[in-house]
Amino acid sequence: MVDSDASVAWRLFHLNWIPIAAMGGVLLMAIALSGFSLEPTAFGIALAVAAVLGLAAYGYAFARADQADPKLVFSLGTISQIILVTAIVGPLSYVAGATNWPLQDHVLLAADRALGMNPESIASFVNHHAWLAICLDRGYGLIKWPLLGIPIILTLTLRLVRLQVFVLALSLALAVTIAISAFAPAIGTYYGLHVSPTDFPALNTSVYAAQLRDILALRDGSLRHLELFKLAGIVSFPSFHAASAVLYTWALWPVRRVGGLAVALNLLMIAATPVIGAHYTVDVIGGAGLAVASILVAKYCVALVADPTSAAGQPISVGSLQPGLGIEPQ
What we know:
Elements: H1 4-15, H2 17-33, E1 37-38, H3 40-64, H4 70-97, H5 105-114, H6 119-127, H7 130-140, H8 146-156, H9 160-183, H10 189-193, H11 206-220, E2 225-226, H12 240-252, H13 259-276, H14 281-305
Parallel strand pairs: 1-2
């Protein structure tokens, strides 16, 4: 690569395929060895879109060599990876949920109470403040759009290394989340408290209802055919909403006029997680801690693939590229 940052980012981009391929391999093995099946149309569309974007990134990079625009290469390539990993982890979380390990709601509830956090009191407070319930409902849905927005923003601002660290941290956090959920399954606070969601009419409990429906169906064996676009978030501990909020905030923090907004919106998503997502407080703490650990591991991987200094003899900068500098595939 012509520029040190682009060269490091290019090597990290290749590295990011490893955890994605590993999770894909586990999913394929699980499908082959278990009674699970995937509805082919939706999953095939996701794979096809990811493949087209990935091939376009590689084709353009190799065709243009050192004249290739890194913004185009990394935006297309990174969006391809994110589409692929999200298409894999949804079904994989359901496979993990079918392991039928004992539910841990009582343990998580006891941990919350030991921390002085009562999920019923939190839900009751929000239920009595309709405006807050509406805000938290909107905040919980913020998990989706940054997955496409972050690659675009970070490539446009030429923070190419940071983008690759984000994707690697995201993949690691997802993999660990699913692994933990297989051995520490839980349904959510309403289930742990033995209360009905109808006791809180101001709250949107559809997320919990979908989670309850699918977890029970997985555990009794009645759900084995998975439709990608109908899958619910069934992981309680650790909360990937909380992990995502930390990852998104870290990724966007250095971007001028965007970092502050990212902090505010992701704090809202974290606040929404125990209420709309029916998560325990320890789920949120676990998810945030997992995100921090994943970022640290991903940064360590940068040190393994990067030169100690940039071409100018200065420490590697996340955003020092100038528009028009190309990448030379290695």
